[in-house]
Amino acid sequence: TSPPQQDLETPIARFQKYLRFNTAHPNPNYTAPVSFLTSLAQSLGLKTRTLEFVPNKPTLLITWQGSNPSLSSLLFNSHLDSVPAEPSKWTHPPFSATLTPEGKIFARGAQDDKCIAIQYLEAIRNLKARNFVPTRTIHISFVPDEEIGGIDGADKFVKSNEFKDLDVGFVLDEGQASVKDEFRVFYADRSPWNLIIKARGVPGHGSRMYDNGAMENLMNSIEIINRFRDSQFDVVKAGKAANSEVISVNPVFLKAGIPSPTGFVMNMQPSEAEAGFDLRLPPTTDPELVKKRIAEEWAPAVRNMTYEIIEKGPLRDYMGRPLMTAIDDSNPWWSVFKQAIAAAGGKLAKPEILSSTTDARFMRQLGIPTFGFSPMTNTPILLHDHNEFLKDTIFLRGIEVYEHIIRALSSFEEAGSV
Ligand code: MET
Ligand SMILES: [Zn+2]
Ligand SMILES: [Zn+2]
After folding, report:
1. According to CATH, where is 3.40.630.10 located in the chain?
2. For the domain 191-281+285-311, what is the CATH code?
3. What's the predicted TM-score (pTM) here?
4. Which residues pair with 74 in a beta bridge?
5. Closest C-alpha residue for ligand 1 atom 4
6. Which ligand 1 atom is nearest residue 313's CA?
7. Where are the strands (E) in 89-153, listed by range?
8. Phi and psi of 298, rounded to 5°?
9. C-alpha span between 292 and 228 (Å, rounded)
10. Separation of CA 251 and ligand 1 centre (Å)
11. Domain with CATH 3.30.70.360 in the chain
């Protein structure tokens, strides 16, 4: 474990220091980590800028100037925030960044995604120490609010004039751990929708059986939604598609009943009942078909149902195309990226769609080729879980991988116009 007066002389110590800032929702502390990252970047001779599109929600932008400013730049993105943690369910406090004798660093954010933030900077430190000079300019962004949808974070950043001035040609954002020896790379995310369905119905005595009660109407809908969920999950269970290639719909809250001081009134049937769902749509999904299904089957007016869909971000790019980055010869960055992983001595798994969602969708919306990548092999997937950890050896290896990636991408001159 770490001494109380922690020095910052090693990459692991700097990673631990960053992990100790509590940037969990609902009250993330953004000020302290931004000032830590700012001084870290300045000690490396990098230019820093803090942009504040919404008060108290800073985006930190770090720049390593390239030798040829006429080429488009590279952007390495990560988010400052994390999901909450329940300390009582953890073996080590979630913001202690405890390093165990077997080299595991326990912290909320160790995988998602504070590892890449420090790895980007450590890779630059090492490249600078070897007098490497990038041809393309390299930007690193640290954005707020990814975990709550990115509306005040990456979305505002990519739509700003400051972003336009960066002339970004290619983006790397976070990915996900790999349980195998191969690195995973993501060319698309699923898009999130929040769905709230509300039933109204005939109220009445708890003892009566009658048709068209609110609870009955809601439960009918839940059964229908669950059948759809099964139909999607069966495809995955049969091995015909990955989790991220089907539509997921999972109930996340239920709200009904007439409250009483001891809980709920038990002999009255309520006139209203509500349920909330997390939906994730693969990039090629036709949203109109899903909306039709919701209107006609999941929350039909004939069963006294109403609904609200909250689309958390874009589904299509500015040209109306699905938000997918090409993984063929039409995207020159793909082959440069592949070569960089090979040069690092790594193996790359088949590119995937990410089951969850990242800020990459906002960059893809602009048509900028964007991959999701977090260099974690042989690591259990613990994002949003209890006891999230990353092994020191995996973290350090990731720095080397980014050195190769930055070297290759920033020296790539052919794609001058992309
Ligand atoms: C709702 S926007 C995405 C937030 C988070 N990264 C998730 O996938 O759940
Ligand atoms: Zn993340
Ligand atoms: Zn997350």
Report:
1. 11-189+322-411
2. 3.30.70.360
3. 0.94
4. 138, 170
5. 147
6. 2
7. 98-99, 104-106, 138-143
8. -85, -35
9. 14
10. 16
11. 191-281+285-311
Closest atom, ligand 1, to C-alpha of 83: 5
At residue 6, the pLDDT reads 55
Structure tokens at 299: 């929350």
10 Å CB burial of residue 65 (0-12, 13-18, 19+) is middle
At 371 the three-state DSSP class reads strand
Distances 405 to 19, 116, 141, 182 between C-alpha atoms, Å:
24, 13, 17, 16
Single out the catalytic residue among 81, 113, 173, 352: 81
Please name the residue ranges forming H helices in 256-343.
287-293, 332-343
Per-10-residue mean pLDDT for the chain, 418 residues long?
65 98 98 98 98 98 97 98 98 98 98 98 98 98 97 98 98 98 98 97 97 96 98 98 98 97 96 98 97 98 96 94 96 97 98 98 98 98 98 98 98 70
CATH architecture assignment, domain 11-189+322-411: 3-Layer(aba) Sandwich (3.40)
Cβ atoms within 10 Å, residue 193? 22
Within the chain, how many helices (H) and strands (E) appear?
10, 21
Q: Is 384's C-beta closer than 6 angstroms to any atom of ligand 1?
A: no
Query: Is residue 167 annotated as a catalytic residue, yes or no?
Result: no
Instruction: Give me ligand 1 centre to Cα 250, in Å.
Output: 14
Distance, CA 112 to ligand 3 centroid (Å)?
Answer: 6
> What is the Cα–Cα distance from 14 to 119, expressed in whole angstroms?
10
Six-digit token pair at 316? Answer: 């299509």
Q: Is 147 in the pocket of ligand 1 (CB under 6 A)?
A: yes
Q: C-alpha distances in angstroms, 208 versus 213, 219, 240, 249, 259? A: 10, 17, 46, 33, 20
Q: How far apart are CA 197 and CA 199, in angstroms?
A: 7
Torsion angle in degrees (nearest 10) through CA of 229, 185, 363, 240: -30
Report the Cα 120 to chain-centroid distance in Å: 17
Q: Coil, strand or helix: which one is 394?
A: helix
Q: Which residue has the tokens 């992983």?
A: 341
Counting ligand 1 atoms within 8 A of each CB, the residue from 80, 81, 152, 358 with the most, and so the one to mutate, is 358
